[in-house]
Amino acid sequence: MSNSIPKKSTRRRWLWLLVSVVILGLIVYNLGQSKEWREFRWDRFWALVTHARPEFLLVALVATYSSYLLRAYRWQWFLEPIKKASLWVLFVGQILGFSSIYLIGRPGEFVRPAYIARKENVPIAAMVAVWLLERIYDTVFLVMLFAAALYLAPLDPAAARAGTILTRLHAAGLVMFAVTGGLIVALVAFRLRADRSTAWLVARCGFLSGSLRGHLEHFLHSFADGLKVIQNWRDLVASVVITVILWSVNASVFWSVFQSLGGKLQRLSWLSAGLTMFFAVLGLIVQLPGIGGGYLVFTALALTELFSIGAEAATGAAVMTWIMISVPCLLLGVVLLLHEGLTFRKLEAIAEEEREAVEEEV
Questions:
Q1: Domain range holding 70?
Q2: CA distance 345 to 290
Q3: 50 has a pLDDT exceeding 60
Q4: Which of 9, 25, 112, 250 could bond to 97 as cystine, CB 3.0-4.6 Å?
């Protein structure tokens, strides 16, 4: 296996970085036009962060590591119809995968399925199906949490923009419900009628050569294998329960950080912390490698625009939550890399090789 990263991957990373910088630059520029952000006091920010209560940060730390273990357990559940995977391998895969995301941004997302596919000798197409299934479960719960918090959490947006903010939030919620619902229906239908759906799709691709149709059929069968977790109501309920526990733990990281910082942040409810987490997750889409730019900006925006938290306190909360979710993962990730005899560059090369294998099959 070559450890060099193809130029295609490098171009993809730089393009993603450029788009993220442009989007975040526009958001930061607009923020800079408001009086509150122009009068940002760094001394207040520093005082808030340095006086955080350590007992709540310890709770956040435990919750962070617990979330990665829960993700590993959920992947073990998803993979059970295909193979009885090692919980340790899955946990290491989660830590190394998220460490890659925090360091190089969204292009590192493919590290998790690629690493686990190699270690467990599972077809990468099946791992992609499991990975996609995880995304759907996470999206469904986050949308539900978003909707619940939107209606139950005490929002306090700035008076002049309250109507616009709430109208846009409600519209975004409806769109996410519709898209997520459609995706779920399509996947369940494909899983329940995998053979018939595969035959229909292959037949519609008659313009392809016989070899290419064979690759497509193989990929679709492997993809269907990855969706075998959808077998009965018991499996569905169990996987939903694991997802609810996982994201409840993730929201508790935010709530614990808010409690540690005190002041108006301490008075925010757990649902308010969950709503803030929702926007932080959106920010991860356009994050900057290593510093989590999108995560920080979207977290601070949610706190200032929805709950009228001061700029210094919102920034402090954004920085502390980013530290609590990324630094513990990165530190353990470095230890595990040394144990595995790997580097982040080798991990990225493995991910790119597996990505190209999937693209070739498709």
A1: 7-34+59-361
A2: 15
A3: yes
A4: 112
